[in-house]
Write a structure and sequence with these properties.
CATH superfamily: Divalent-metal-dependent TIM barrel enzymes
Largest sheet: 8 strands, parallel, barrel
Shape: globular
Oligomer: single chain
Number of strands: 8
Length: 289
């Protein structure tokens, strides 16, 4: 199975929120053929579906020979239920565009009880989505790997209490690595439930340096979840050659998606560099297996 590259549009959130179609044209021009959509205009916090119809967006993507392979949508703030989202609308809009999946960007939890409740909600949403021809994924950060006892993390509870036919996992390899978890071991454990991975920006962190989380001031409501650097283990740089060699050996990962969150003056140039590096990593490690 050939591994395809995509771009999560949060990487260019300011650009896409200012001029959606022009940004898509620029992304296409630098070589991205697959994109993962975002739901929210970050300039005014409106939903793109309120101003850009599914048909119009699909036509534009077809014009550019691009595919919306999936979307990030349906998250919520801490203390809210994932079921509070208008899933009928979210599913219909993204299905009409042609998305294969919807990934919930994050689900906030601190205890085993909250993780069990989240798993129950994911099962409900995943079943609804499956019945409408689209797949549900959960995207991780690092707080899902918080230990709740000597044997379990929050992520363990989610994995063990969600329906493998209805709930899949979009593994962000660098967030997992930042939590002290081996993403390769986790991919092996997830198996075909993890056929999509997220790759945090690669430049300038390859090959000498490891990933550091984006620097921004979190609203107070999120601070208990996003652990500061003193609460996280010391880590060595993620070995991307080892990672992509294993991805190719395993064979079930279909997409690796660039998510570039750093503040840079030219984000189009930055994600272009990510694409260049990632292509080299994939080609090199495909040839080595």
């Amino acid at each position: 199975m050939s591994l395809e590259i995509g771009l999560q549009l949060f990487s260019v959130k300011d650009e896409i929120s200012t001029d959606y179609f022009r940004t898509l044209e620029e992304i296409s021009a630098i070589g991205y053929k697959n994109v993962e959509l975002i739901a929210t205009n970050m300039k005014n916090l409106s939903r793109f579906s309120d101003t850009v119809s599914a048909k119009t967006l699909r036509n534009k993507l077809e014009e550019l020979n691009m595919t919306a392979i999936g979307a990030h949508d349906g998250g919520g703030a801490p203390g809210t239920s994932l079921l509070d989202n208008d899933w009928d609308h979210i599913i219909k809009y993204n299905y009409e565009i042609g998305c294969q999946w919807i990934a919930i960007p994050s689900a906030f939890m601190l205890s085993r009880e909250e993780a069990l409740k989240t798993a129950e909600q994911l099962n409900h949403i995943g079943k609804q989505m499956n019945e409408n021809g689209i797949k549900l994924y959960l995207h991780n950060h690092h707080f899902e790997f918080r230990k709740i006892n000597e044997q379990e993390t929050l992520y363990d509870v989610l994995l063990e209490n969600t329906d493998p036919d209805h709930v899949f996992f979009e593994l962000d390899v660098l967030w997992a690595h930042r939590a002290g978890v081996d993403p390769i071991g986790l991919m092996e454990r997830l198996g075909a439930r993890c056929d999509v991975i997220h790759q945090k920006e690669l430049y300038p962190f390859v090959p000498e340096e490891g990933f550091e989380p984006p620097k921004f001031e979190l609203p107070d409501i999120y601070k208990p979840y996003f652990l500061d650097s003193e609460s996280l283990p010391d880590i060595a740089p993620l070995d991307l050659d080892r990672l992509y060699q294993k991805v190719n050996e395993l064979g079930f990962v279909k997409y690796t998606i660039v998510e570039n969150e750093y503040a840079e003056s030219n984000k189009i140039a930055s994600v272009a560099k990510d694409l260049e590096i990632l292509k080299k990593k994939i080609i090199l490690n495909t040839q080595s297996v």
